[in-house]
Amino acid sequence: MPRTDPKKPPCPADACIAFEDLTAGYGSHAAIHHLSGKLERGTLTAVVGPNGSGKSTLVKCITGLLAPMSGTCRVATDASLAYLPQQSELDRSFPARVVDLVALGLWRERGLLGRHRAEDRRAVADALRAVGLEGFETRPIDSLSGGQLQRALFARVLVQDADLILLDEPFNAIDEKTIRDLIGLILHWHGEGRTVVVVVHDLDLVRAHFPQALLLARRPIAWGSTAEVVTPDNMRRARQFQEAWDEKAPWCEPSPAPVRGVA
Ligand SMILES: Nc1ncnc2c1ncn2[C@@H]1O[C@H](COP(=O)(O)OP(=O)(O)OP(=O)(O)O)[C@@H](O)[C@H]1O
């Protein structure tokens, strides 16, 4: 994991995540190029951009699941991390009950096979209540609707009690009521001073609820306050850049345009 590599300089004190000329991707194929900047502690940031613009790749870099091709991605060493991947990456056929799925959020404290204490069972019950899934404890996860599964996954994040929360497209194929409830949890986490990073496609949601935004199109297009980043002009630039992207281009060409609003 980048954040535990003793050869790398530590994350700046006010930052939860710091990128320095980060280029990342798969094999020899880069999906994000030359990202520099930092996310301050306690911020709520939406990562936006067209399909294939590198949003999930960036989140995977932050988790340490993907190592940079060049540059660095550093996470504060004292920040515990909770990560919710896209639902499409989850195996719903895994034979588990809702309560087991949520209790997985405690694995750091208890280990995967550790016995759960009364306080753990309380934490899981509280989390299920908070996401509106009281009474679903023994339901097999493959019997849940998409929205109910997302609520259960948010309950797992709740019990993780992490300083840094990364959510990859948590509102995909979810109804409006569920989105409202999940947004409420995200705002609550932000209010508690946690750093929250969410990949979001719905720009109305971003404008309404996210103070900060990072707009990607294989490279950073804009980063800063949402009002300055999610503008028609920037969205058009992102689309144009993404559509003009040459998959066979050398992966390390410098960014041709300045990035506005980078911290
Ligand atoms: N495991 C992988 N192996 C090879 N290429 C990948 C892999 N995952 C993603 N890519 C490629 O990296 C690029 C960026 O993908 P990424 O999933 O990060 O984009 P995204 O912005 O999250 O897209 P979307 O909005 O469609 O979810 C795409 O060209 C994609 O095909």
UniProtKB/TrEMBL annotation:
Q: What is this protein called?
A: ABC transporter related protein
Q: Which GO terms describe its molecular function?
A: ATP binding; ATP hydrolysis activity
Does this entry carry the keyword DNA-binding? Answer: no
Q: Which UniProt keywords apply?
A: ATP-binding, Ion transport, Nucleotide-binding, Transport, Zinc, Zinc transport
Domain ABC transporter residue range list: 17-243
Q: Which family does it belong to?
A: Belongs to the ABC transporter superfamily.
Origin: domain of life: Bacteria
- Classification via Gene3D superfamilies: P-loop containing nucleotide triphosphate hydrolases
Q: Which residues form a coiled coil?
A: none
Q: Does the keyword Nucleotide-binding apply?
A: yes
Which PANTHER family does this entry report, sorted A to Z?
Answer: IRON TRANSPORT SYSTEM ATP-BINDING PROTEIN HI_0361-RELATED, METAL TRANSPORT SYSTEM ATP-BINDING PROTEIN TM_0124-RELATED
GO term, biological process aspect, one? zinc ion transport
Q: Which Pfam families match?
A: ABC_tran (PF00005)
